[in-house]
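Example 3.2
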Amino acid sequence: MKVTVDARGLACPEPVLLAKKAIEENDEVTVIVDDEIALENIRRLASKTACGFSVTEKEGGVREIALVRTEATGQHPVDSGAITAELSCAVVPKKEMGAVVVILSDNRMGRGDDVLGDILIRSFVHTLLQLKPLPVTIICYNAGVKLAVKASPVLDDLRQLAQAGVDILVCGTCVNYFELGDQIAEGRISNMYDIAETMAGAVRLLRP
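Structure, written as tokens:
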């Protein structure tokens, strides 16, 4: 069954949540968005759920996103239990959830002197490179998204962590709030659904 979801004007994470619900219940879904963050969130949803993904550009910055469940054609019939699993678009994990997810909710560490807080957060992020094993994910939200900008004093360390395989999630709502959309230099723009899912699946949360 084909359905259309009009997610124009909706705030994060509503577009991706509506898209997820729709593709779980239908074989083909068209999602209409007018926001770049919503587009990227749904692109990642398609990747995680093994769905086909294509985008048609429309006037005024509107995009029509086509999601197709990859097993919807029924080319590989198996028992009913397996069909349910394949057609559910349940999350397909890219890797096993590691022991530690790091939460960066501020661009300083601790309360008190701001200069000291700046020094401490630089030291903390740099020290993450020495952990064995490395954190599986770093989540930046609220003022913590400022650590991922071009002028960030910890940008080089974040880049090294990303190159080592650490997934860095940057809250899209927070990026918009601080008007940093053109300044994010590391990590991928994320949404509250991904953030909550990652935190819920972590073995340990590390918050400086």
